[in-house]
Amino acid sequence: xxxxxxxxxxxxxxxxxxxxxxxxxxxxxxxxxxxxxxxxxxxxxxxxxxxxxxxxxxxxxxxxxxxxxxxxxxxxxxxxxxxxxxxxxxxxxxxxxxxxxxxxxxxxxxxxxxxxxxxxxxxxxxxxxxxx
Length: 132
Description:
Residues 1-25 form the signal peptide. The chain is mainly beta.
């Protein structure tokens, strides 16, 4: 009889615990956004992106960026890539990279990241323009 009462109490409490849990996010709820889309062609160009939670519009700090590439795919020259180096974060939720934009025209910044507390991999491709 004691076991039956305990089981009934546990079963009755289950809906309450389900309501108390926060809604789970999905990796698709996040995206990188360029802070500017036009840059002067040359060496030492610093590109900054923000990682945004699309549900709230707030920046997301502490992502682990494990893949980065910049190339001229928008100009049909995906093989023309430049070295890219990650720099210290200028502010929470912002991520900066230093590169060399050797030619004017369209460039694609490809990023792969893990967002703290989320499963899956965030992958974004951002288009920017190098001006003379």
